Automatic annotation (TrEMBL):
Name of the protein this chain belongs to: MinD/ParA family protein
Molecular function in Gene Ontology: ATP binding; ATP hydrolysis activity
Listed InterPro entries: AAA_dom, P-loop_NTPase, ParA/MinD_ATPase
Disordered as annotated region, ranges: 1-28
Organism: Corynebacterium qintianiae
Cellular component GO terms, alphabetical: cytoplasmic side of plasma membrane; cytosol
Length: 341
């Protein structure tokens, strides 16, 4: 489901070719002579198994017998390592859809939660929806402060000062909600968004933006200009798929063709059972136009519309979001254009 011709590589290619993502060390750097490095001299202790009969044997013998990790545990660790890819500076993720009710906010919270829970750095999600966005309500109990309060703060030079305006989910994802008054929320402009990102980029490594459904809203110009990657969310339904395709067309026609080619399409199932459209053709279409396509299965917990808690997700759903996070993280090592201020 990955497009090898589009911009970026898949997370599996990233973990298989880790050395290609970093520059060669300077010629004057002191390196150990051949034959005297860790790979040839050290006989490392094998990683202990984490569960099952392998863990039982390891613990009952005090570690003298170590069956090693199973293939499943090795794959899981590779996935965690991919999500923890080194990150230069900050990385901005725009989550958007032209159609409401397709799981855009849910995707923002779940993806941000996986990054915050798996990585050690700071992750924040911003609600840029002008129409009573629900990001704060889906992530944690909403805090009274909003993005407007952050913009009017007298001093945001230190993290504790910014943290006073955010709320934190159980996953460690921080969120900052939009105004609940539609009249005030509509006044949130492109300049306001750029100022918010300018504040947050000094304190957070991964910044997610839960966008509104309108491409012509003034804020979207700033969102698209500052984004490193676009997550385009749709449902496995004809109208949602057509809206997603139209979004890619609009991006290409308005100077964002590189962002469209590097986008990741998320097909989020909103009902149990098999989809009524041809998923193979859907996947083929978007794979030819974007970097990757990811399928998120239906999940009863997400369908509640309440606070998203990662530990309440079905294992298949959580794994799907982890794969999505690894796909996004495969782009962390690339050089990106950021705001000029």
């Amino acid at each position: 489901m990955h497009n090898t011709e589009a911009t970026g590589i898949s997370w599996t290619q990233w973990v298989q070719q880790p050395q290609s993502r970093f520059a060669e060390p300077p010629s004057n750097e002191l390196l150990p002579p051949p034959g005297l490095d860790q790979s040839t001299l050290v006989n490392p202790v094998g990683a202990p198994p984490q569960r099952g009969w392998r863990r039982l044997v390891h613990d009952s013998t005090g570690g003298r017998l170590n069956p090693g990790r199973s293939k499943r545990e090795v794959r899981e660790q590779e996935l965690v390592d991919a999500i923890r890819a080194p990150l230069r500076g900050d990385y901005r993720i725009a989550v958007m859809s032209l159609k409401g009710g397709v799981g855009k906010t849910t995707t923002t919270v779940a993806l941000g939660g996986v990054f915050a829970q798996t990585r050690g750095d700071r992750v924040i999600a911003i609600d840029a929806n002008p129409d009573l966005g629900t990001l704060a309500q889906r992530a944690a109990a909403p805090a009274p402060a909003t993005i407007r309060d952050l913009l009017t703060a007298p001093d945001t030079s230190r993290y504790p000062q910014v943290r006073a305006y955010t709320n934190q989910a159980a996953s460690r994802l921080e969120v900052i909600g939009s105004e609940r008054d539609p009249a005030v929320s509509e006044a949130f402009s492109e300049a306001d968004y750029r100022r918010a990102v300018d504040i947050l980029q000094h304190h957070y490594n991964v910044i997610l933006t839960d966008c509104g459904t309108g491409l012509m809203h003034s804020t979207m110009a700033g969102v698209l200009d500052l984004a490193n990657v676009l997550i385009l969310v749709t449902t496995p339904a004809l109208d949602g798929v057509q809206s997603a395709a139209a979004t890619l067309d609009w991006l290409s026609l308005h100077g964002h063709d590189q962002l469209a080619a590097n986008a990741v399409v998320v097909v989020s199932a909103n009902a149990p059972g098999a989809p009524t459209i041809d998923m193979a053709r859907l996947t083929e279409h978007f794979t030819s136009r974007t970097r990757a396509v990811h399928l998120i299965p239906y999940d009863r917990h997400l369908a509640e519309g309440a606070v998203v808690e990662l530990d309440r997700l079905h294992q298949k759903t959580l794994n799907a979001y982890r794969l999505l996070a690894a796909e996004v993280a495969a782009d962390f090592g690339s050089w990106h254009r950021h705001a000029a201020y």
